[in-house]
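ok so I'm stuck.
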Amino acid sequence: MIVIPEPIRTSRSKIVRKGELERRVELAAQKIKGQGAILILIDSDDDCPAKLGPELVCRASEARSDLPIAVVLAKCEFEAWFLAAAESLRGYKGLKNDLTSPHNPEEIRGAKEWLGQRMEGNRKYSPTADQPALTASFDLDQARYADSFDKCYRAIAHLLDELQKAGSSLPAK
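replied:
not stuck anymore, here's the structure
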């Protein structure tokens, strides 16, 4: 059985600071009681994911080398993954029924605004209110067309594999 605790939310500007990432990793380790894995997911914003990601995973792994840890940076914004899977979100949370994915979802700066412009009536996209529901509903296979979501998908599969290996090496109860 997999138990996923409530995420530890913090601003992107804080998590990249020296010491703050390490503090949050330790908090996550305490929350899972030292058993499990940690996935760190942030927006890359204007940083290069290929440069910042390895730096953050190195820092996080130094903080807790006893746990499998993955760091994934959504290219520019997390919401770009919704754009990649737009067809699967048609008519959901106020999004228009004729919604289609843009050609290059991860190149659009302003994915939140893109979503807001495609909502019915005067409704506006709210990350706090809409992100959890859209995350629970979007088509994972469709979203894998976004390279950074595909990386996230593979990172989660790797963490699950690591946990399965660790579980199979434990003595039977």
